[in-house]
Amino acid sequence: MKLRLLCVTALLLFATEAVAAYAANGARKSFEIFRTDSPPVIDGKLDDAVWRATEYVDDFHQTSPGDGTAPTERTVVRVTYDDEFLYIAANMLDSEPQAIQAKQMIQGQLFRSDDRFWVTLDSFNNKRNDYFFQVNANGVRRDALRENNARFIDEWATIWQAESQMHADGWSTEIAIPFKSISFAPQSDTWGINFGRGVVRKQEYTIWSSYQREWWPAYGGEVQGIAEIEQGLGLDIVPSVNLTQQRNLVLNDSDSDVEPSLDVRYRITPSLSATLTLNTDFSTAEIDEQQVALDRFSLFFPEKRDFFLQDAGIFEFGNIDTNGRPFFSRRIGLSDDGEPVGIDGGIKLTGRVGDFNVGALAIRQEEDGDISAKDLFVARGSYNVLDESAVGFIMTHGDPTSNESNSVAGVDFLYRNSEGPFGEILTGRFWAQQSRSSDLDGDEQAFGVNVEIPSDKLLAYVDLQQIGEDFRPALGFVNRAGIRRYGVGTRYRTRPETGFWRAINHKIDYVLVTDMDNSLLTEWLEIEPIGLYSNEDDYLFVNWSRNKEVVREEFELFDRLNVPAGEYEFDRYRAELGTGWQRPVRLVLAVEDGGFFGGDRLMKHVEVQWRQSAHFFVAAGFTENDVDLPSGSFTSHLASLRSDVAFNSRWSWSNVLQYDNTAELVGINSRLRFIPEAGKEVVLVLNHGADLDSANRLSSTQSDINLKVSYTFRY
Fold this sequence. Notes:
Layout lengths: L1 H14 L14 E3 L16 H4 L3 E2 L3 E4 L10 E7 L3 E9 L22 E7 L7 E7 L4 E7 L3 E3 L7 E7 L2 E9 L11 E10 L4 E4 L13 E4 L10 E14 L4 E17 L2 E9 L25 H4 L33 E11 L2 E10 L8 E12 L3 E9 L8 E12 L8 E12 L7 E10 L3 E10 L15 E12 L6 E14 L5 E15 L4 E13 L3 E3 L3 E3 L2 E13 L6 E12 L2 E15 L2 E14 L2 E15 L4 E10 L4 E13 L2 E13 L5 E14 L1 E2 L1
Parallel strand pairs: 1-14
Antiparallel strand pairs: 2-4, 3-13, 4-5, 5-11, 6-7, 6-12, 7-8, 8-9, 10-11, 12-13, 12-14, 15-16, 15-40, 15-41, 16-17, 17-18, 18-19, 19-20, 20-21, 21-22, 22-23, 23-24, 24-25, 25-26, 26-27, 27-28, 28-29, 29-32, 30-31, 32-33, 33-34, 34-35, 35-36, 36-37, 37-38, 38-39, 39-40
């Protein structure tokens, strides 16, 4: 009780600081563009006649470190279009052109260390969602979706062009976005649009249109004059062929195969698409990063397969992070132990019809041992209400890992107001689900409520989640059922006007988990008295946590240390230091120490990254957990080594070595990629696995080679 009183009191003290007084967003920025009959050559040079005849916008302002202050470097943007493409030209003037950061040369990778320019397109002009296109001074592309003014979906990818050039006064870029690559409302000539720039050496980020440092779709500007554009047939045909050789080094046998596959994407309307996949192959998907389980609950691994990543945001439900998801695509095509299961084919429907957002997915999964072939289905829909809110539903059917039947139905509601009574952003979410399983007959319900004020100065949230004892979404993810979870937290941020520090944070988070009879299972309070973030993007934070765990049934850590049933209470302390991404050598150091289930645990982590140039990057990480319990002691080691070699913006070679003494394995993944242009790809992947014996000696177990060639035909 004292702990809960302390938590509530501290939260109230933080919450007494009001956010900034209300300031109206005012009229949206806007400009008009005109069709061109002489499209530019996409080479980044900005010397085409069309750009000299096109009006420009340059009224950018800072979102960081300042808020609304004038940029230190000027950015000039021009936009035009023809029947097939939207063209953007941007000139990033720089007073120190020799200091421009351009160290990323692998397509699709993050630009944390690089100067960059981006454009966002709200092609329905609904102030809710937009497309994100980003490019650096090497002409490397990155794209994403932004959903519901709150979520950034980096996994989305499409076909577009971009080239950049360095020049004496800075750098410039040209972008060509095909109308075939995006959805839009053909009856409207006005789109939402925004532009942004990052100057990484200054940690300066400038935006054309924003409000209180935010630049979500709700705060973007408008572009007018887009009319009579075409998508052709709206048909993409992507044939692929995959050559594999698998060697079992324990049994000394091998198997080779040649498998064709086909993806077909058809735009039924400019805003609604259907995708067909046949004989789907995922052998060249990126590998998972190893994780160490430090409690009794299942680990969550993100999706890495392209077919499921495309338009994945449409299937998101209730903004549920992990526990309680009704749909988690990794349940499809993978067994319970993570081994691939064949997929005969599938069809996906995604897009918008008026104010409706729709998504449907049907998959035929192959037989797997004693698990029969499965027909799996997911349907997701939402309807836009008010200015920024939505109400929706989800349904799933099928169980990919058993012969039992399973279905889930759920509803959710998102409330968002970006101009609250005090100038703050206010979001609220509610969701409820019901599962039906042929082998269960208990409480199969789940629901959740969340309210959040996500402002830059003061962030505050309250959430509640209840997961019934028998709630089981066979196509979703649940790692802790039969619980009620209460959470509350706040983060207060100050931004010094001068000095070394860009931001100073103070945080408190409190979580209480009970069973359905309100008996305590978990209580967790974490206080971060200070988190420091420098103008060079370095950071330092320290925190303390009080943990209380009630273990109803004994479990094992690392498959070797027994944790008996009982009640455990312990404190933990953590400190972490990291240097900025723009530095040639980046260092992360973390240490965490304290009690742990009746004993002690000391965690040490070190990560070193060296970006030698745009052509070479290497990163090494090592995490050690030294656990000492009454039942025994064990030290887990998790190590990784990654190297990226970019021969140019089209050829890259990535290698990952992972070592995990808990799982007693060593894995090597090597990927050689050739992307001559967006939509065309050749990937050669080598996977090699080895086991460790009791003396830590390596014994190779398997070696796989996969070659995949894919080509997009667009009509």
